[in-house]
Design a protein that fits this description.
Layout lengths: L1 H19 L7 H13 L11 H19 L2 H6 L1 H26 L5 H11 L4 H7 L7 H31 L4 H36 L4 H21 L4 H15 L7 H35 L12 H35 L9 H9 L5 H8 L14 H27 L9 H25 L5 H24 L4 H34 L5 H24 L1
């Protein structure tokens, strides 16, 4: 019962954070950490003892899968060079550079444990970045690189983290064996992700053959997919992380959504957005819950002289070290890209100083780092405590918070002015696509309307076609490049939307009145309300896109 109440309390706080973030100018992750700390402080901290493998299974697959599904695949493919450079090269550079720096600064942390902490700190969190700064302020190319990097370095960083933890537990490490194991984990993990996608597609096909299957059953198949990928990969001792990422990346282009009904598609998209928000928020609130107790029990290795100044200074130094390593790697990568372009006699796409600095500060740590570090084993195989576990958890938590604070203070100032004023490329692309789709629809409707019917049927077809085509022409006019034409079309669209919403409100009031007078039962009312709400959501969604 206590666990159930605890989960409900966390969910309530996640909900409140979504409302409060609109009222206070604080990044959502920082607000959630503060709310968790406020909840825990009066009761001297709340510790949640969770099995490390269970913790990874519950949080990692849905988070990574959701991020992968939402990632812009075309941009990731076009920017694969710098993304892979950061997602793989920078991870190894961070593990070596930060690991040795940490062991030198805090000798009580064994070198292998320092490498483990460096590995779990290497994944970045683009979701946290987008909550800190407006996406329209950061250059689109940089934002896509940060998104792609955060998606792939989750896999590479956590795979290396697991190797480092295994080295601590076994007391031995072989570079050759680790390299072969890494290649196997990557290859088998990718195959497991593909297999999970195929299994999900076959399951949906089977449900379609059965017929009249509830949409919720189809949605459940999509929800289970990342867990199937993760568990399948872990069963063959591969990377479950890469399996979940692979399944998510391939989901959009695989055509699996064609096996879902309209209702199931809408429920799936809505549910994944909700799950992503809940899991990210729950992780940050869990960090906040631990914060008071972490502060009260600062590891003695960091508080030998000053109880507060020394640990805060250490966390700040380590965070700046990560930013410096990241800046150095991006800078060297720019030099290498410039030299390669010169030898290849092509134009180099390099970053300026401010963009490099924004990319360095924007590499904040977030939910994946927290999930990874909290999954550290409690004890060694012989029953002794895992070396420096409390210390590295303290440092990881401190670096997450410090990187978020630094980014929230510095990134908006660094990024200001980097994007030229004007229409966002994504908005222009959406406008062109909307016009192309509308023209195709008009051509098809006119062709069907003039299919050779005669008499009253032909007249009815043409009348209905004219009504539908008029709506498409208004959509084209609203996307016209001429400002005056767009303004007129938008005003007409606004008036139409206002009238349609008024009619919807009247429908809702009438259904409610019929229910109160017992002309209809609650089932009929709910069915009608669902239809009305769907229509209203579509109209408001169209309004938001304009």
């Amino acid at each position: 019962m206590q666990v159930a109440v605890f989960i409900l309390v966390v969910l309530v706080f996640v909900t409140l954070s979504g409302a409060l973030v609109r009222l206070v100018r604080v990044p959502l992750p920082v607000l959630q950490i503060a709310m968790g700390a406020a909840l825990a402080w009066p009761v001297r901290g709340i510790h949640v003892e969770i099995d490390p493998e269970l913790f990874l299974l519950v949080f990692i697959p849905p988070l990574l899968f959701g991020d992968a599904v939402a990632a812009p695949k075309r941009e990731l493919l076009a920017l694969r060079g710098p993304i892979l450079d950061l997602a793989i090269g920078l991870v190894f550079f961070t593990i070596v550079g930060f690991g040795y720096a940490l062991h030198w600064l805090v000798p009580s942390i064994p070198l292998v444990v320092a490498f483990a902490l460096a590995a779990v700190l290497s994944p970045t969190d683009a979701v946290a970045v987008s909550s800190i700064v407006d996406r329209n302020v950061v250059p689109a190319r940089l934002m896509h690189i940060l998104e792609g990097e955060s998606l792939l370095n989750d896999a590479s960083g956590l795979v290396m983290f697991r190797f480092a933890v295994a080295a601590v537990l076994t007391g031995s490490f072989s570079f050759a064996a680790a390299s072969l194991s890494f290649l196997y984990a990557v290859a088998a993990g990718i195959l497991a992700g593909v297999a999970a996608l195929i299994i999900a597609a076959k399951a949906l096909q089977l449900l379609n053959r059965i017929g009249s299957v509830p949409a919720e059953a189809q949605v459940l198949v999509m929800i289970l997919m990342p867990f199937i990928a993760y568990l399948g990969a872990e069963y063959v001792e591969a990377s479950g992380i890469l399996a979940a990422v692979t399944a998510g990346l391939l989901t959009g282009g695989s055509g699996i959504f064609r096996y879902l009904g309209v209702s199931a598609r809408m429920q799936t998209m809505s549910l994944w957005t909700t799950l992503s928000f809940v899991f990210n928020g729950a992780l940050f609130i869990l960090l906040g819950l631990q914060l008071p107790d972490i502060i009260r029990h600062v590891p003695p290795e960091l508080s030998s002289r000053h109880w507060l100044i020394e640990p805060v200074a250490m966390v700040l130094i380590l965070t700046l070290c990560l930013i410096a390593l990241r800046f150095l790697w991006i800078w060297v990568g720019d030099i290498a890209a410039r030299l390669a372009a010169r030898f290849g006699k092509r134009k180099a796409e390099t970053f300026g100083l401010r963009v490099r600095l924004a990319g360095s500060v924007g590499g904040v740590r977030g939910a994946i780092t927290l999930a990874g570090i909290l999954s550290l084993p409690l004890a060694m195989p012989d029953g002794s405590p895992f070396p420096a576990r409390d210390l590295v958890i303290f440092l990881a938590a401190g670096v997450i918070i410090c990187s978020l604070v630094i980014a929230s203070l510095a990134l908006p100032k660094i990024a200001r002015g980097l994007v030229e004023p004007g229409e966002h490329p994504g908005a222009a692309e959406e406008r062109r696509a909307r016009v192309g789709a509308a023209n195709a629809a008009i051509a098809r409707i006119e062709s069907v309307a003039n299919d050779g019917s005669e008499g009253e049927e032909a007249g009815a077809r043409l009348a209905v076609a004219d009504s539908i085509v008029a709506g498409y022409r208004r959509r084209i006019a609203a996307s016209d490049e001429a400002d005056e034409a767009r303004a007129e079309a938008r005003e007409a669209g606004r008036l139409e939307l206002e009238l349609r919403l008024a009619g919807i409100e009247a429908e809702r009031a009438a259904v409610r009145a019929m229910f109160r007078s017992r002309e209809i039962n609650d089932h009929t009312m709910q069915a009608l309300f669902a239809e009305i709400t769907l229509t209203e959501a579509l109209l408001k969604g169209r309004q938001g896109r304009k």
